[in-house]
Amino acid sequence: MPSRPPAPPPDAPPAPKAREAETPRPVTLRTRLLAILINALVRLICATLRF
Fold it and tell me: Looking at the record, which segments are called Disordered (predicted)?
């Protein structure tokens, strides 16, 4: 049990830093299409929930 708590904190900080470094890259068409698709899906779900 005591070995578990110290392990997660050191692993958590490096992951977000790596992601932040990748974010500056230009948005690709694939990611744009994926975002549009997700947006459409969310809208559809919201519309169905209203009715």
Answer: 1-25
Residue 12 to residues 3, 5, 39, Cα–Cα distance (Å): 16, 12, 29
What kind and span of H or E run contains 20?
helix 14-22
pTM over cut 0.70: no
CA separation for the pair 7, 4 (Å, rounded) = 6
Tokens standing for 29? 């068409």
